[in-house]
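Mods, move this if it's the wrong board.
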Amino acid sequence: MVLFSGGQDSAVCLAWALQRYRMVETIGFDYGQRHRVELQCRLRILSGLRDHFPWAAGLGEDHVIDLTVLGQISATSLTRDIAIEMAEGGLPNSFVPGRNLLFLTLAAALAYRRGITTLIGGMCETDYSGYPDCRNETIQALASAVSLGMDRKYAFLTPLMYLDKAATWRLGEELGGPAFTELVREHSHSCYMGVREQRFIWGYGCGECPACQLRARGYEAWRRQ
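Not the wrong board. Structure tokens:
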């Protein structure tokens, strides 16, 4: 089961999983995010994979979980109309406390019912933010806790954990060729502001928020390699 938001990282992880597992299900979360347009983008990517990539034949059921309670208790720039800035403690206010912990726990609960024990997410330690719930130590500690609490051995896999954005672009091209890169550029969504009106060489976004800047720098670095 792939945690699939509709962003670049999770799209690459989905391609990675589809080429390694016979059947892959996807899960997304509506948590009141400002960039809720990603929920529409994820459907376009799923459709594109099914229609144009033979190696995506194992793409199974998609699930979307209503987690709007997280947005209700989170006063962050991803869940409120406030400017992105550094907050106390050295983290950007785009950090949504508990987000990945809840995502993985709920995905594991659904996976339990589906008979799935491998969860795959696009978390990485190389991202600009240094979000603590993206670190490998956090993910693996949670995997241990979930395995104990559900009395079933879970594997939480993070293929991008030590890759920068240039390497993520490169991995996507290696997995699916130029056609998959174009699918990611055209339909994946990274922009924190939810902007889909402006098209850059790396995809759609505002071009100014940290997520757009990270994606743009990674694309440019990859193309120079």
